[in-house]
Amino acid sequence: MNMKYTITTPLYYVNDKPHLGSSYTTIACDALARFQRLSGNSVLFLTGVDEHGQKIERTAESKNLDPQIHCDEITERYKYLWDKLNITYDRFVRTTSSEHISLVHQFYSRVLESDDVYMGRQSGWYCVGCEEYKDIDDNEKHPICSIHKKELEWRDEENLFFKLSKYQKQIEKLITIDGFISPKSRKNEIINFVSKGLRDFSISRVNLKWGINVPGNKDHTFYVWFDALLGYVSGSLREQNNPELTDNSLCNWPANIHVIGKDILRFHAVYWPAMLISAGMETPASVFGHGFLTREGQKMGKSIGNVLDPIELLEYGGIDAMRWYLLRDIEFGEDGDFQLRRYVDIVNSDLNNTIGNLLNRTITMSKKWFKDSIPINNPSSIQSQLKKISEVKINEYMKAFQENNFKNAANSIIDLANNANLYLNDRAPWKLIKDISNKEIVAKDIYSVLESCRLIGILLHPIVPDLSTRILNQLKIDSSSLEFENTLQWGLLNPNTGLADPSPVMDKIELNESAI
Ligand code: MSP
With b meaning 16 or more CB within 10 Å and e meaning fewer, what string describes 221-230? Predict the structure, then answer.
């Protein structure tokens, strides 16, 4: 059945160019979006940038740039990288766009109508990097942000507050719904946080020019998180010009999944749903908080300065290597440490050796013994053991993707490829073919392995779309409009198809410690 599926990445701060951490979330979302499309669902994949707030204002100031010009420049870099990484987003939200600003105003008036805003005073320790007040004792001397490793700033100002506490019961109920927060460990963390009692939070700032003005309070601009979370709604508006926030103006809302890093879970699992309930809107179906990519054990971050440049990594190993490593090696939900040697080993072993060589040597044999083609046979009669294995592996793969478990999905593909390699080695068609009476048996064997390669090519598509296309091209299969439903059955590889000369689908990467 065709269903709608809406997936979002966070809207990335434009304080600096994108790094590997932001690429990680976006690649993961792209894999999920592609998987859903292949499953026949109608997908809205939304990404974008978060452009307001003190962090951005200060960065622009330090570069002597008008903030808008600074934002435009960095935004282009994000778009450029997403193109390079073959990210298939449908909408790109900018929080400085006039449509978004109008949406924020309309949403705010709904929250006002619910009587959920009041003027108060906020004091406490603030991290500009997180754009967040921290739960730290007022009397602490020179506290440091545990994420950004920078000194917190003392703030004491008049702000507008949102009545989060009013939604305690609704939020308690929401966060315990099965599947709303994943992985489990993060769910417990939020349940614990909410059980301490929700406190109202400030949604405006004074003395901050670089933000959306609050109607009726001329010295105030919206708190950057209040503004940014609404980007998910402005990106879901059917009509992007002169948007009106009505019950019918949104397409594909609510989001099926917000994919975010673990540091911004509270905003998404607690503050955001409460804001939506206040405005009379539906809450998202789920929030997935993934772990941090670390390098030398430390979170990779723009403020810390230990970032790995995704463009450099791309130039070094290519897009398939980068996407494969991030999704195959790191448990989605857990932290993962980037190690160059491991990167090279995994990519070479899985993609170049296990999959690439399998395809290459089987095509070579097929061409040589079967007139440049896939062996002629009656595919449905081939009850190869690979057929059974592929069915098991396809099921495992489906289950893994439904649980956002890329590692298991990738493993099931590799298992299938390993089995096909073992099968080939066991059967040794190069020996069998020496006796011409074995030709039919060899035809069946070669067909079974090529058919496994076809399935591998399709299953790889969400994770490494470029490599998937190259594999399918070698088998003369059009990969432009694939769907699982009519491609994943055993025996669909068309016999009699001419095969092109085999060419390596994945180059080996040489280890070069100084490359990145
Ligand atoms: N602008 C906010 C999000 C607003 S969403 C309405 C923001 N932006 S961010 O650019 O700082 O971070 C975006 C995402 O990147 C977050 O989910 C964060 O967890 C993730 N990452 C930042 N550094 C990361 C790593 N080193 N590793 C993995 N993800 C990381 O927060």
Answer: bbbbbbbbbb
Rg, C-alpha atoms of the chain: 26
Backbone angles phi, psi at 248, to 5 degrees: -100, 0
Q: What is the pTM of this model?
A: 0.95
The confidence score (pLDDT) of residue 308 equals: 85
**How many Cβ atoms are within 10 Å of 220's Cβ, its own excluded?**
24
> Could you tell me if the CB of 293 is within 6 A of ligand 1?
yes
CA gap 497, 448 in Å, rounded: 15
Span from the CA of 22 to the centroid of ligand 1 (angstroms) = 6
DSSP labels for 402-469? HTT-HHHHHHHHHHHHHHHHHHHHHH-HHHHTTSGGGHHHHHHHHHHHHHHHHHHHHHHTTT-HHHHH
Ligand 1 proximity of 300 Cβ (cutoff 6 Å): yes
For residue 367, give both structure tokens: 């061409």
- Record the tokens describing residue 31, joined without a space: 């894999």
Cα(123) to ligand 1 centroid in Å equals 25
Are 325 and 336 within 8 A, CB to CB?
no
| Residue 251 pLDDT greater than 90, yes or no | no
Residue 93 has a CB neighbour count (10 Å cut-off) of 28
Cα 288 to the center of its chain, rounded Å: 10
DSSP H or E segment with residue 17: none
Q: Which residue is closest in CA terms to ligand 1's atom 26?
A: 300
Question: How many Cβ atoms sit within 10 Å of the Cβ of residue 66?
Answer: 11
How far CA 124 is from CA of 132, 136, 156, 158, 263, in Å, comes to 10, 8, 7, 12, 19
Ligand 1 pocket mutation pick from 7, 9, 12 by most atoms within 8 angstroms of CB:
12
Distance from C-alpha of 172 to C-alpha of 198, rounded to nearest angstrom: 10
In short, whether 272's Cβ falls inside 6 Å of ligand 1 is no
What's the CA gap between 119 and 204, in Å, rounded? 10
What pLDDT band is residue 381 in, cutting at 50, 70 and 90?
low
What is the arithmetic mean of pLDDT over 501-507?
93
Report how far residue 197's alpha carbon sits from residue 169's, in angstroms, rounded to the nearest whole number: 10
Q: pLDDT, tens digit, for every residue of 414-425? A: 999 999 999 999
